[in-house]
Amino acid sequence: MRTSLLLFHTLAVASSIAGLNAALSPGCSSGGAFVPDSVLNVTVGDRYYLLYIPIDYNPEEPAPLILSFHGGSRIAEQQLNLDNLTSKAFNRDYIVAYPNGIDKTWFGVPGVTTDDIGFTTTVIDEISAAYCVDTTRIFATGKSQGGGFVGQLACNTTASRRIAAFAPVSAAFYVSAPNFGDTCQPATVPIKPCAPGRPDIPILDFHGGADGTINYNGGPRKGGCLPTIPHWVQTWAGNDGLGAANVSRPLTDEGAVLFEWGSAEGKGGLVSHVFSGPDIDHSWPSTFDNPDNILHKDGPASFNATTIILEFFERYPLPASVA
Predict the structure, then answer these.
(1) Is-contact 92 123, C-beta < 8 A?
(2) Which CATH class is domain 4-315?
(3) Could you tell me if 45 and 72 are in contact, meaning their C-beta atoms sit under 8 angstroms apart?
(4) Measured between alpha carbons, how far is 101 from 323 in angstroms, rounded to an integer?
(5) What is the pLDDT of residues 266-322, one digit of tens each?
(6) What's the pLDDT tens digit per position in 205-253?
(7) pLDDT (0 to 100) of residue 183
(8) Residues contacting residue 203 through CB under 8 Å, at least 6 positions apart
(9) Which of 65, 89, 131, 166 is the 20 to 30 A CA-CA neighbour of 235?
(10) Do 119 and 149 meet the contact criterion of CB atoms below 8 Å apart?
């Protein structure tokens, strides 16, 4: 996995070619400078995002793009050092953007009104104009509050028509309402508003049974109500017209279980949930040490979430009817 030292190195490389985005030709072109396996810090108004250019990027071939959102009280650099998407062992093809949230949080948390959806759209527009991006293969993942924001993107009419598939990890799916208090019923709380702009939204969710931050069984938090994770996933299955029935199978021999609802052309669960294991805390599952499982002392996990996320994204590009 990449360390903060490597991050500083790649940012230094990027800073030595300041103004790179302005020099690039829009869309797919053989012209323009880029540095494979590097990270740029890109400013958008008073905000920024980190942009990873994969080792096999070819400006003449459309590349997929992943948006990866950090957790609460964290920043973009920490998400880059967590999700393994800048590791050549996992990813050689996907451009990856790490948007940075204002005040280390995201829209969807009770009381947060920042236009993070508009910011995300701007990030997509900028990257698509400067690089050769396959606009049918734009995806979103994120951790904790960032994972909850991924759920907000999936529910948004405009964003869900541009982002093909969504993979939240240990996500905080807040349902905001005044004075929830003890009236929060996590197994039945209505999950709204949700107005996706297309049917059959692919969702892949990960959550550990020992999550001490965003409890698997939900409950009141930050003035809102967290649904149980099964309730949230089953609601999405219903949104996609798949009903309540699912198929489950062990993912590993150490308690990780995969639940799947529906399929698209035999490609597996259109809506899927990975129960990361009974002992997995608020962590990004990884088979080696990472900042999460070191902090929570719950790892390594029995699988790599990053591998499963990339396989899921590969199966679900944006439908031709939408693209």
Answers:
(1) no
(2) alpha beta
(3) no
(4) 28
(5) 567 999 999 999 999 999 999 999 999 999 999 999 999 999 999 999 999 999 888
(6) 999 999 999 999 999 999 899 999 999 999 999 999 998 889 999 999 9
(7) 82
(8) 154, 165, 166, 167, 168, 233, 236, 240, 270, 271, 272
(9) 65
(10) no
